[in-house]
Automatic annotation (TrEMBL):
<protein>
    <submittedName>
        <fullName>Uncharacterized protein</fullName>
    </submittedName>
</protein>
Length: 139
């Protein structure tokens, strides 16, 4: 008896998931709306042209279908170009932001650094060439 309830719960989760996908598709539908009508009109024009008895009417319908198909292709191409330009602009903005912040940080770093002078002597493990009371002269 409980296996039916379990299946209904899973089905409800799937329905909620698919509902969000459907809402996303509906939000995007307006952009496809005009293109789909043009494609449908082209298909109907081609069907009408095939069923027509007169060759002149068929030629006219074919020409109209070709014009609609060409218009649909140009709309799709314009959408692709717009999408590519948008992506390029977004990438350029991101790169400009990253480099502007990086350059600002790099240029500010030397100005903030202070030089610390120490009075420590350089101590090495080499033996001195001069003794303490003598003057060192080059040989």
């Amino acid at each position: 008896m409980h296996e039916h309830v379990f299946a209904a719960v899973i089905a409800n989760d799937e329905a909620e998931t698919l509902l969000s996908v459907e809402e996303l598709d509906d939000a995007r539908a307006f952009a496809d709306h005009l293109r789909r009508h043009a494609a449908t009109a082209a298909a109907e024009a081609a069907t009408t042209a095939a069923g027509a008895a007169e060759p002149a009417a068929a030629a006219t319908a074919t020409t109209e279908a070709a014009a609609i198909t060409a218009e649909t292709a140009s709309i799709a191409e314009a959408a692709a170009i717009t999408k590519a330009a948008t992506a390029e602009t977004a990438a350029a903005t991101f790169v400009e932001t990253v480099f502007a912040e990086t350059v600002a940080l790099v240029l500010a770093a030397p100005a903030a650094a202070t030089f610390i002078k120490t009075h420590a002597l350089l101590v090495t493990f080499a033996s001195p060439k001069c003794k303490i009371g003598q003057t060192c002269r080059a040989k």
